[in-house]
Design brief:
By secondary structure, this protein is α/β, with parallel strands linked by helices. It is built from eleven helices and six strands.
Amino acid sequence: MKTIGIVCEGPTDQIVIKSVIDKLTGEENRYYKLQPEETLAGKNGNGWKGVVKWCRDNWDEREKLMHQVQPEIDFLVIHMDGDVSRKEKSAHCGCSSSADCARKGIADPLDCDKTPEGRAACPIQLPCLDHGEPIEGYINHLTHLISNGEAHHEDVCIVIPCDSIEAWIVAAFDKTENAEIIENPWESIISKRKSYHDIRVRSGSKNQRTFADFADIVCENWSEVTRICETARSFETAIQRLTAQT
């Protein structure tokens, strides 16, 4: 059994990630949910910005953090969906396209899109030419955003499903060969009807019960998911490396 710290966009992503890790390790591991926080009043909030804020505050001190809890954390898993690179301008504030921004160095990029004025004034154009083609471009961009370009191989797995973790679900259920390049598979495929492969999608909203059902099939068909999805293969390789060295 491993003790694993999870930094994640949201609770439904976390369900799939934990289920896959347990499948890959062949045992039920112990997890510490570090992000998102238990309450909406937490300082970081949910979503990709919460992940970035957590990493800003804790990246350099992560080793100390991992030893503060008992039992100690063996390694961290940090998750962010690839669609952040595709659609979120404020994730690209370190790119060359932001050179003409009047707010650069003055305002926190994560706060720029909180006002209509900030969004309208943003000079960034998407898709960003600095990051090449998806899927690799999204992975490289967001890995750098999370780690600020620092090495992380010894104690961290950064997982960036493209376009989102729902692509793994589509690959598991439908064997869709281009699952990773489908934009917003949740809305475009999974939640278009009241049920998806006889699993009820309640009011089109994401909930933990539904994703627990999805996670079972993702694990059951994991070999197909890794065949179709480059990001799933990378995740499996990283987990196998981390579990072997701890």
